[in-house]
């Protein structure tokens, strides 16, 4: 029964967020995804988009092909750092949890993810662009909810076995 509520809540969040974000907020190498269907979130760790159907992504801006996401930046795959590398203020863990600066997402680390990835080190929180900042450096929220972007997870740069 608990999993049913989680699925329903997730669907409601996805549906409501689809009306908040707009196409014009995406930058040059990004494309807007409204939260319906699936999107292949290409990362340095997974440039072939293997997570298309594994992970439910929130509405927001994601890297256009052939660009890949590394720490909230859309870069060409040949510019990805060596394996085992995480962006500044992040740590590679087999499982972990992120805090977020603001927006309709959690502000505390209360959901543990059971997959390897780069996670914000304490006391850092992930901003809307996917970067880990000190909590006091997080941008102050304003009344303009239109500018809210879906936070992107930093791709894992683990060694492949």
UniProtKB/TrEMBL annotation:
Signal peptide range: 1-18
Residue numbers spanned by region Disordered: 136-161
Origin superkingdom: Eukaryota
Biased amino acid composition, Basic residues: 146-155
CDD domains per UniProt: TIL
Disulfide bond as UniProt keyword: yes
Coiled coil spans: none
SUPFAM superfamilies documented for this protein: Serine protease inhibitors
Transmembrane stretches, start-end: none
Keywords (A to Z) from UniProt: Disulfide bond, Protease inhibitor, Serine protease inhibitor, Signal
GO molecular function: serine-type endopeptidase inhibitor activity
Keyword match Disulfide bond: yes
PANTHER family linked to this entry: ACCESSORY GLAND PROTEIN ACP62F-RELATED (PTHR23259:SF70), RIDDLE (PTHR23259)
Protein name, per record: TIL domain-containing protein
């Amino acid at each position: 029964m608990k999993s049913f509520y989680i699925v329903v809540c997730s669907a409601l969040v996805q549906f409501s967020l689809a009306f908040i974000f707009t196409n014009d907020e995406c930058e040059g190498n990004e494309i807007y995804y409204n939260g319906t269907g699936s999107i292949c979130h290409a990362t340095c760790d997974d440039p072939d988009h293997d997570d298309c159907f594994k992970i439910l992504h929130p509405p927001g801006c994601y890297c256009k092909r052939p660009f890949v996401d590394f720490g909230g930046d859309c870069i060409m795959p040949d510019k990805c750092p060596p394996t085992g590398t995480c962006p500044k203020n992040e740590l590679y863990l087999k499982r972990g949890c992120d805090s977020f600066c603001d927006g309709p997402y959690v502000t505390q680390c209360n959901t543990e993810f059971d997959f390897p990835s780069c996670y914000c080190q304490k006391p850092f929180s992930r901003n809307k662009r996917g970067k880990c900042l000190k909590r006091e450096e997080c941008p102050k929220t304003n009344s303009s909810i239109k500018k809210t972007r879906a936070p992107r997870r930093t791709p894992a740069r683990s060694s492949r076995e």
